[in-house]
Each structure stands twice: as structure tokens, then as C-alpha cells.
Amino acid sequence: MIEYFEQLSQEEQEEITEVIQILYRQTFVLERKFDKRQGRMVPVREYRVLSKHLEFIRAYFKVAGITLRENTHMGVIYIQGEQLWGEKLSRLATIYLLVLKLIYDEQMETVSSSSHIVTTVGALNGKAGEFRVLRGLPSPTEMRRTIALLKKYQIIEPLDVLEELNEETRLVIYPCIHTVLLGDDLRALLETFSEEDTIGDETTIQNTVEDLSE
Q1: Is residue 103's pLDDT more than 60?
Q2: What is the pTM assigned to this prediction?
Q3: CA 81, CA 62: separation in Å to the nearest integer?
């Protein structure tokens, strides 16, 4: 494994180091992301690097007890393992994550030729309202903060300016949401978030991933 790395150019070694750090930080890399300037999905350089050196990087993570997986249909490479610790998620971020997966699954049933789905903030809050899991409509500041966090993890991509957030603000839902949650678990999990529940205000994105994606 070390010999393979040492035979690479310095540029390639730096690229591998970079993508490994990205995977540790955000757990997955998308093949394509939406580019606002071009108005379309474009290839992601880090995904190409991962694909080129996939077996080496897989062996690297295996030493640490972490599994590297590739789903070419969804266009995502991601890691899983009990050793991974994610960032704390607020209650609202956890609810949004669950509801986004529901919306994604529902729309994919009718638009199976697309790998990404577009929804709106209004639809997101409306779906959460159907399950009565929100203690009133979140403030614009709280919604912006939550959407920014989910964007950081490449779960979504806002298509409109967040500072002008409203019910019509569009959100691209990326297929990597499949690596976070399995559809069959969602409705039962959402029902635990009733208005009167005593669940804690925070959870971790990685614990959610591990509990529901195995």
C-alpha cells in the first residue's frame, strides 16, 4: 500500500491526502453537484480522484476499521464505521433530514430518470407539518442556519439566495441522502418527534447514518 503511494507524483499524493481528509470530515463525496453559474450538474474533481485511486483508499480506510463504499448508480462514494463521529445536529436539522429523504423518495417514484430532486422550503415545512413534528414554524434565521448545515454535508444545495429565504426558496436534494437514511425507517422515526416528546435537542449526523444505513 505504501509502495503504491510513493510511486505517485507529488501532485497525486496531495490529491489523495485531500480526498481522504474530505471523507473524514463529511463522510461522502458526490460525483456531480449543481453549479449555480452554469445552471446544471457538473462533475466533482474529488470524485474523479477517489475513483482513480479507489482500491488504495479503500485499503487505507480498512486498516482503521472503516468501510469505503461506492454506489455508481447514485454517483456517491462514502465511508461507514463505528469509529466515525459526526457533527451535532439540532432537532430541526434532524427533522429536516428525515423529511428531505421522504420527499426525495416520493418524487423519485415518478421521476426515476433523475438522480437529484428539487423541492422548496415551503414543501419541506409542509411535509414536517403533516407529521406534527415542528413546534410552530421555525424562524428564518433558524431555517437558514439549518439549511446551511445540510448544504455543508452535501445533502442539499439551495438554488436561491439564503438571505432572501422564503417558502419558494428551491433546494436540490442530492442522492447521497440514501447513504444517510433508509426509507422504511423514516415514518416510524418521524413519529417519535411529536410536539410533546422528550427527545433531546441534539443528535449526531454520523450516529443517524450508522443506525439507519446498515
Answers
A1: yes
A2: 0.74
A3: 10
